[in-house]
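Weekly puzzle thread! Below is a chain. First person to post its structure in token form gets bragging rights.
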Amino acid sequence: MSSIIEENKRKIEFYLKGNALKDSIIDNNGRSIAEHLYGSMILARAIQSEFKPSEDISKVLRMIALEGIELTNDDFKCSDYLTNGSKYDKELEEKKRMVTFDSIFANICRVNDMRLHRIIEENPDKCFYELYKEAVRKGIFKPKSFEENKKYQEIFRFYYNNMELEKNERTGWDNEHWDIIGKRESVADHIYGTIILSLAMADNYEKDINLDKVLQTLLIHEIGEIEIGDKTPFDMTKEEKARLEHKAMQHVLGNLSDEDEMYKSLLEFDEEEKKEAEFAHRCDKLEADIQSKIYEDNGKQKSLDEQQNNVAFKSPKVQKMIQEGANTAFDIWYLYDKDIYKDSETFRNMLEYVKENSLTNTRKHTLVPSTLVAL
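Winning reply:
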């Protein structure tokens, strides 16, 4: 049992280093490092769709996701936390040396995310096409033909639409739900968190899964919310949300060359029948459970006595939990979701570890070191 506890301790410490990037601000507009890394990964996936520059896009996504942790933690090594960490350490070393195409591609996406985001932020009244022309004028996109111009437009459209997820707070923490005190995570922050958590939870997982597929699915699993918003089970039925979200997904994917492949992965995620989809779905749910505990342990969760406007709190199911002894918001999250993990010892053990241990976060809401932003 002690070995399981120690393994969960290492996994959660690894995840918390990524979670801290939700609260680390990278520019004067309040953008988090996690949001920047999310935008960089979205850009990489869209470019991969249209031009296939990488033979291993999942490795590029890992390089981007993990570099943010490495640059904000002295002497960080994935192998100190994960059994499979030495693989990720090699990828980070490859990224640092910038001698392979994948490492250069990852860096280009980080640089161009910052440039594109700046164009969008500085020109809020301009339409999509005007912003795209500005990106071409500044040399971010360099179309050499009519066909390339169409591809770059699709790349920018996908990136531009996904930037909405940086603006959208996670509904579960807003004033009508759990009303978190202070800075709340965005949907983009959450997506980044699921990607980091998936790397941890895949370590010694009881099933053989294709983690590359999981990463790519998690990266885009919330794109329907760009149009319909972040809806909880207390806001609409699961069936209604799926109907609206599937239609929105197709619209957001637009005419990307990989549209069919990406849409299929999203449908599989919702169906939860394939093992990769089941794993990704559990990561999505567990990340929210852990975030609830982080908010609670850092004094951001209000007491149950202060939940008068909470639509989730008013549900009969939640009221029954309170009558049976739930004392905090996390207690309710724990009881509400624990059955999701009943068929996985790995996820069950992690949820219990989170329940029994404090997840405090000492990182302040300050601008990050120049090593990350001096691109």
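Puzzle host: Confirmed. Bonus trivia for everyone else. The radius of gyration is 20 Å.
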